Amino acid sequence: MVSQVLILMGSASDWDVMRETGNELDKFGVGWQAHVTSAHRSPQRTADLVKQGEQDGVKVFVCGAGMAAHLAGAVAAMTTRPVIGVPLSGGISDGLDALLSTVQMPGGVPVATVAVGKAGARNAAMLAVQILALSDPDLAKELVDTKVSQAAAVIAADAALPREKK
Ligand code: RP5
Fold it and tell me: How far apart are CA 94 and CA 146, in angstroms?
């Protein structure tokens, strides 16, 4: 399977969260690869992975990092393909540092920033699928089915709620 999504993370300690991106992509049958690389500790390796990914046909980059969290921005500086940034907790204020580092890109170098942590890692996958679905009708249909399932799950949760005591 061709890896359409390349997941990069600043440290192996990020994998526990970033595996959510892979898990979600698996549900849609979208191929992915994951690597540890750091904007600060291994800048040349990061550049090499982006270049190789483009040559291999990667369409969306998903980058997770904590603390100063420059990985997504560094990748966005090197590619014209969409980059989604997942801020990770571990630094100050439960990831507020990483959120600001990831989201506050200067004009001209966008990073689509999702929520801090596991919800963000999952949403990064969903957003990647939405991008890929623009040119893939089967994926677009799966996204519609997912919305329907999510709505059904909310209704089922509501039905199961012990809402009254008399
Ligand atoms: C960031 O620093 C990584 O993305 C990680 O979230 C954080 C801590 O890294 P380690 O000290 O665990 O390698 O660059």
Answer: 30
